[in-house]
Fold this protein.
Amino acid sequence: MPLTLHYHPLASFCWKALIALYENDIPFTANMVDLGNAAERAALLKLWPIGKFPVLRDDARDRTVAESSIIIEYLDRHYPGPTRFIPASEELALQTRLRDRFYDLYVHLPMQKIIGDRLRRRDKKDPYGVERAQLRTSYGVIETQMAAGTADTWATGDLFTLADCAALPALFYGNMVEPFPNGHSGLIAYFERLNARPSVARVMKEAEPYFAMVPKETA
Ligand SMILES: N[C@@H](CCC(=O)N[C@@H](CS)C(=O)NCC(=O)O)C(=O)O
């Protein structure tokens, strides 16, 4: 099996890559990395000096691919399956990349900051880095897009794409730290559609045993 995914089953950006792998039943070896283990962290840093996962190693093409969006584009190009993550239409491809950036930058990153802040010592909290307002604005943008009556099935229309792989982890943990507002029925319905997708259900089932490790809110 040429592909190895270096990941952790609880890590939100790793979910994004896993969803894509499971969508198309792409065979791969899963290498779980414990960042608290010095040797495992050093091995990851050797692959990708930034030290963040997911990282995909493709021995068949002698390539190491970092960054979840790039991993998914790489899979789409070199290991294509029935789900195409970047639509063939140029306009839809652009929309897909825009939505992918939107979910990563304006939902996922603010969510990560809130969870990251929970890990800081009480006297080292970063209230300025925590952007709940950004999350709420983003929820509003999604609600407008998905509002009842004009609801698209997926982030860029009828096709499940890279943008939907990005949306699920961002929205799952986003909803945990800053719950979706009442009345955002389009957003909630979209989140439910994502959760019903078999690739997503599989990722969630594999993450379940680790959920106790998610840092809880501290006073
Ligand atoms: N832009 C990166 C973000 C990756 C990322 O933030 N990964 C987190 C896990 S969800 C991580 O590796 N955190 C460990 C650390 O920062 O030390 C991507 O899209 O892959």
